[in-house]
Predict the structure.
Amino acid sequence: MIYTGSYNNCLKGNKVSISGDRGKNVGYQGLCFPPLAPKLSFWKEWHNNIGKISEEENNYFYIKNYYDLVLKKLDAKEIFKLFNNETIFLCYEENNQFCHRHIVAYWLEKELGITVSEIKTDKFGNVTILERPKWIKEMLDNVIKEQEKKFVKKIEGV
């Protein structure tokens, strides 16, 4: 199983950081998987646009760039082989906030037909399943559909 969670909510477990700074801001010193980290270039643009353009438009920009520049270059099956051992992919944001780990979770679910739950673990390893924003899945699905349409047009010569 692969899970996702925030640094603050996951006190115990097989944790792997996927944040850009590898969890340094919270003193995380465990394993990291940089290929799933967002690219600094689009992250900065997204961050600088907060409050300047609509949240929906800004988050769509982020999801599109994260998909194009990160996820499309990765093989979900290989990631599953590497981390299918109760791994918790970590980042900073709370479960109900916009975060790239939610995009990763929905992408893995779509690509592999598995469930990737957002969890919380206490100091004893007890697991609580949390909700994640469903609208992120809808935006990711829209981005993927747009990519597929562009690909079809390209191969049809339109």
Q: What stands out?
A: Helices lie at 40-48, 55-69, 76-83, 100-112, 134-156.
